[in-house]
Amino acid sequence: MVTPRERMVISTALLIRERGAHSTAISDVLEHSGAPRGSAYHYFPGGRTQLLCEAVDYAADFTADRMATATDSLGAVDVVFEGFRSQLLKTDYRAGCPVVAVAVEADNQPVLDRAAAAFARWTALIEQRLKTDGVPAERAEEIAMLAMASIEGALVVARTARDVRPLDLVHRQLRAIVAAAISLDDDHGRTSP
């Protein structure tokens, strides 16, 4: 069962992905979560900064948990793209990535640090999957960063254009890059360039 505190964190992440960090007030979170008025400062004595940090952590955990369900590198890439794609369509292009929203809008270091940690965590998960699939460490690091930047950039463009085609195009191209890296390492006994 989700506690009132957890509902507030989840509501913050959901509101940020649609409205951005600056446009999400604590009163909006209280209304969205159904939490009583005084609960915000009871559960989050650090105020809005603490709430934003925990919402970013929630989003980081949510995506990392989805990535963990994949059995290989291609699956990890697929699950992230598919998750963002389905949310775009389900919300009529209102839902972006809450971590991007915070990273772009945050005006305090603790929140920016949490966003940086979320991106680093996701990138490391993709990198580790690639290494497990036989891609050399340096190449895995490069592809993982390309994947993270491409995924987030494609999501922003798709949301802004109100069209999933940018996300689909980047997904196909990134999938081809990952498949080639795995194939070159596993099937041919040589490493990718």
Describe the protein.
It holds the Pfam family TetR_C_13_2. Keywords: DNA-binding, Transcription, Transcription regulation. This is TetR family transcriptional regulator. This protein is an all-alpha fold and 193 residues long. Helix content is 77%, strand content 0%. It contains nine helices and no strands. α1 crosses α2 and α8 runs antiparallel to α9. It is elongated and about 60 Å long. The C terminus is likely disordered.
Topology:
Blueprint (H helix, E strand, L loop, with lengths): L3 H16 L6 H8 L5 H5 L3 H22 L4 H18 L7 H8 L3 H24 L4 H25 L3 H22 L7
Helix pairs in contact: 1-2, 1-4, 1-6, 4-5, 4-7, 5-8, 5-9, 6-7, 7-8, 8-9
Short précis:
With 193 residues, the chain is mainly alpha-helical. The protein has helices at 4-19, 26-33, 39-43, 47-68, 73-90, 98-105, 109-132, 137-161, 165-186.
Largest sheet: none
The domain count comes to 1
Q: Give the class-level CATH name.
A: Mainly Alpha
Radius of gyration: 18 Å
- The termini sit apart by 49 Å
CATH homologous superfamily annotation: Tetracycline Repressor, domain 2
CATH topology-level name: Tetracycline Repressor, domain 2
Shape: elongated
Q: How large a portion of the residues is in β-strands, by DSSP E?
A: under 5%
Give the name of the CATH architecture: Orthogonal Bundle
Helical residue percent band: over 70%
The residue-averaged pLDDT reads 92
Listing every helix as H and every strand as E from the N terminus to the C terminus, the arrangement reads: HHHHHHHHH
Total number of helical segments?
9
The low-confidence parts are 187-193
Structural class: mainly alpha
> Could you tell me the number of beta strands?
0
Keywords: DNA-binding, Transcription, Transcription regulation
InterPro entries: Homeodomain-like_sf, HTH_TetR, Tet_transcr_reg_TetR-rel_C_sf, YxaF_TetR_C
GO molecular function, one term: DNA binding
Protein name: TetR family transcriptional regulator
